[in-house]
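Hello, quick one for you while I still have it in my head. Could you read through the record and tell me how the tokens relate to the sequence? No rush at all, and the record is pasted right below.
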Amino acid sequence: MTTIQQGSKVTLHFTIKMKDGSVADSTHNMGKPAQLVIGDGSLSDNFEKHLIGMQANQSKAIELVAQDAFGMPNPDNVHHMDRSKFVGDAEVEVGTIMAFSGPDGAEIPGIITDIAGDSVTVDFNHPLTGQDVTFEVEILSIG
């Protein structure tokens, strides 16, 4: 029986639950499982340690504290932008999540946290940064 180890290509379903039990994200909602390679940097080392040794068709609930899940908020990820950069029909208001182009051209989400005159504060930290979460994982296959 194949078990997950360093370098394994894993196909899994996951559900991320907050402390209050609400669901923050789930591959079930997207209708397709996630794929990753253990050790490729897409998961924290601590999270990967929980997956190593699991087998296909196995499920597990993994509780992660903030720094092992999405990390702690990084003040360098908070930017002040000129309101004139926000054009078009997009509503500029606190709480709005917008997509911005990153330095590499990839889209990165940012949440508007403050508006003061012509200055708009945008937080590019992951929305779950600083949160303790539970990952419910269901391993579908291991390659």
